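protein under study:
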Amino acid sequence: MRKTDLAKADAKKIMSKVSPGHASSFGKAPEVIDKREQRRRDQALGLVPFAVKLHCDLVAQLNAQATARGLDMNQLVGELLSRCPT
């Protein structure tokens, strides 16, 4: 990378940290969790990252079902997989 590219990347990082929150979160201090802390929390809960590639139609169905049931996508997929016989 050139020096100007590095400067632009640094500026983007700074601006993302300084940018104001959304109007819906007005008056609430946003909970900032870095990736390391999130990884520690997930490990404490016994969660393991598991990436798969799915067809976009199936993902759309999963998203629709998750929002209809008020669940997180991770919770929905975990529930569906736990129902499957071994």
